[in-house]
Amino acid sequence: MKLNAKKKVKIGLIGLGAIGAGTYVPILKNNEQVEVVGVCDTVKEKADQYAAELKTKAYYNYLDLFDRSGLEAVIIGVPHYDHTPISIEAFKRGLHVLCEKPIAVHVNDAKKMIAAYEEAKTKQPDLIFGLMFQERTLPFHKKIKDILDGGELGKLIRTTWINTKWFRSQLYYDSGDWRATWAGEGGGILTNQCPHNLDLYQWLFGLPSSVHGFAHIGKYHHIEVEDEVTAYFEHENGMVGHFIVTTAETPGTNRFEIVGEYGKLVYENEQLLFYRNRSSMLKFIQESETKFGKLESWYTEIPVQLNIPHNHPYVFEKFISAIHSGEQELVARGPEGINGVTLANAIMLSSFTKQTVELPLDADAYEVKLNELIQSSKYVKAKSDVQVTEDMSSSFSKA
C-alpha cells in the first residue's frame, strides 16, 4: 500500500561489506525520507559499528531483522547467492525490496525471485521491487539511450563494446577466500564487474537471439572463474554485437561503438561523437553509381549535460518515491534484472559447450553446469565470512 508522502519509510539494510557500508550507509545517513529501523550483518562487529553510526539497532540474522524491526522496505547488499532467499522472504512479508546487482547468479534463481514478487503483488499491488543499476542514470549512458530511442541512427547494424578498465590484481582476489570462486561468488568478471555493462547492453538493444562466448578461466590470475571474455551476439533485426572485457589490462579501454544506417556513435574518454551520414547507408549500398565512393558524413560532438541527478543516491530516491506513490517509476524494475543474467549465463554456457547458444536460454542446463563447478570449488562457506570494507568509488563508472 502506498504511503503518505510525508511519512518516513521504515527501512533496513542487510549486508555491511564494501557496498553496504561504503555506499548505502552514507545514503541512509543523509536521507530525511527514511527511518533506519535496523542494519544486519553476520559479522557482529560490523552490525554493531554501523548501527551505532546510523543510531539504530543491530541484527545478526536477517530473519530477526524482518521479525522485530517493524521495517517496510529493505536494501539487500549481500553476496550474490544470498539475493534469492532473502528477497523471497521479504516478498512473502510484503516488504519493498531494493537489491544490489546482479539480481541473481543464474537465471533459475532470478525466476524464483520474480515469481515470489509477482505472487506478493497479488495481495499487495503497490509492492516495489527495484534494482541498483545506477549506470543507467549516468549522463552519457542516458544520452546514448535518448539517441537510440529517437531513431537518429535508423536501422542498427553493429555494436562493439570494449571495456577493459576493470583491472584487478592478484591481491584483490586474495583479499577474500569467497572472491572469484564458483561457490562463493558464482563467477568472475561477468558476475562481479560487468552486470552493469550487460544490463546497459540489453537496456539499449534488447536481448540477442543467439550468443557465442569465449571465456578464459584464470588466464591471468590464480582464480577458478573467468577473467577474460569475448562474446558475439546476433539479434533478430540483423544487428550484431561484440562484447570484450577483462580484469587483466592496464591501461584499459572503454570504447563503445554503435553503427546504424545513418551513421556511427562512439563513446570514449567522456566524449560522445556522432559521425552522421547524409543519407541511408543501406540505400547507398544498393543505389550508388560508384564502386568505391563513400557517403558524405558529418562529425559532431554530442553535447551532454553532466550536472543531472545520477548514481546510487538518485536510484535510491526513485525507490523511496515509488514506495510513496505506489507507482513503478524506477530506474530499473526488479524483473528486468533477469536479462543481464541471461546474457552472462549464455556467454558462459556457450564457452563451456563450445557451441552457439540460442535464446531463450536453457536455464536448467546452465544451473547443472554451475552446480558441477560449485562441487569442485575451493571455497567452503563459513557461518560468518568477514569482509573488508573497501572504497568502491574507483570501481564504478568505467569511462
Q: How does the overall form come out from the CA principal axes?
A: globular
Number of helices: 12
Structural class: alpha/beta
For the biggest sheet, the summary is: 9 strands, mixed
Order of helices and strands: EHEHEHEHEHEHEHHEEEEEEHEHHEH
CATH superfamily of the largest domain: Dihydrodipicolinate Reductase, domain 2
- The N- to C-terminal Cα distance equals 40 Å
> What's the helical proportion of residues?
25-40%
How many β strands by DSSP? 15
Radius of gyration using CA atoms only: 22 Å
CATH architecture of the largest domain: 2-Layer Sandwich
Protein name: Gfo/Idh/MocA family oxidoreductase
Pfam families: GFO_IDH_MocA, GFO_IDH_MocA_C3
Structure description:
The model is unreliable at 383-391 (pLDDT under 50). The protein has 399 residues and is α/β, with parallel strands linked by helices. It folds into two domains: 9-134 and 310-333, NAD(P)-binding Rossmann-like Domain (Rossmann fold); 135-306 and 339-383, Dihydrodipicolinate Reductase, domain 2, CATH 3.30.360. It starts with 8 loop residues before the first strand and ends in a 24-residue tail after the last helix. The protein has helices spanning 18-29, 44-53, 62-68, 83-92, 107-123, 139-150, 170-174, 195-205, 281-287, 311-325, 337-353, 363-375; strands spanning 9-14, 34-40, 58-59, 73-76, 96-99, 129-131, 156-163, 210-217, 226-234, 240-246, 254-260, 263-268, 271-277, 297-301, 357-358. Strand 12 (263-268) and strand 13 (271-277) form a beta hairpin. The strands form two sheets. Strands 14-13-12-11-7-10-9-8-15 form a nine-stranded mixed sheet. It has a six-stranded parallel sheet with strand order 3-2-1-4-5-6, sandwiched between helices. This is Gfo/Idh/MocA family oxidoreductase.
